[in-house]
Amino acid sequence: MRARRLLAIAAIFLASGAGAQQAPQSEGEVRKVDTARGKITLRHGPLANLDMPAMTMVFNAADPKLLQGLKQGDKVRFTADKKDGTYIVTAIEVAK
Prior knowledge:
The protein is mostly beta strands. The protein contains 1 helix and 5 strands; from the N terminus they run αβββββ. It has one helix at about 1-15, and strands at about 25-35, 40-45, 55-60, 75-85, 85-95.
């Protein structure tokens, strides 16, 4: 009985994502938004989780809806990752 309870707790913990590491947020500036293609060009600082120095580059949006409301010149905080050899933005918001 105790083993079942421990397994249930572990399953809930894993399903909640509480044990998963999330990529850190980085700061950047929007240089271009291409909503039709789901791409955004960002000038960003170092991306520690990707071992990448500061630069300007194009990212694919994990979901094109992430790009809605963004415009050139916006200062943003974002999370980037690499999936299947492509750099993607998984979260982005205008910095306050």
